[in-house]
Amino acid sequence: MINIDMKMSRRIVRKLSSRWVEKICDFEIRSQVVSFTLIDVCIGLGLRVGGEKVDLENESSESQLRSLFGYNRVILTMIFEELVKCVNDCIIVDFCKLYILLGLSEFLLPNTKGTVCSGLFSIVYLPKWSS
């Protein structure tokens, strides 16, 4: 059912394969049967299971947050530096946007280069609040 190329650890595949019980179509782990549904597999592989599709490569030109960094590659240390600047002289909404961007980039969607996916700027985009 999944028609895209995926990479998975051989060690994990080997362990899961050795624990598969054909008769009941489930895994046996420590003498307990653990069911895995299609949604469990999708979540485990990091595939989208609901909601709108998010394009992480999308270059959003509308984001005020993106303009803080210019249009160069953004790395996590740049977000930290902006957060430190914001502590004293920034609107709380902007601080929150940066903090959410940091959380998404560092914990939910990390990469080995420490770069921020450009599509994340459109996720944390909120227009300026009107007074």
N-to-C SSE string, H for helix and E for strand:
HEEEHHHHH
Percent in helix: 40-55%
Q: How would you state the average pLDDT, rounded?
A: 76
Biggest pleated-sheet summary: 3 strands, antiparallel
Distance N to C terminus = 50 Å
Name the beta content range: 5-15%
Topology:
Elements: H1 10-19, E1 20-21, E2 26-29, E3 32-34, H2 38-45, H3 64-67, H4 76-89, H5 92-108, H6 120-123
Antiparallel strand pairs: 1-2, 2-3
Report on the structure:
- By secondary structure, this protein is mostly helical.
- It has two domains: 10-45, no CATH class; 64-123, no CATH class.
- Helix content is 44%, strand content 7%.
- The protein is built from six helices and three strands.
- A three-stranded antiparallel beta sheet has the order 1-2-3.
- The longest helix has 17 residues, at 92-108.
- The protein is elongated, with a radius of gyration of 20 Å.
How would you summarize this macromolecular structure in one to three sentences?
The chain has 131 residues and is mainly alpha-helical. The chain has helices spanning 10-19, 38-45, 64-67, 76-89, 92-108, 120-123, and strands at residues 20-21, 26-29, 32-34. Strand 2 (26-29) and strand 3 (32-34) form a beta hairpin.
Keywords:
three-stranded antiparallel β-sheet; mainly alpha; 131 residues; elongated; 44% helix; 6 helices
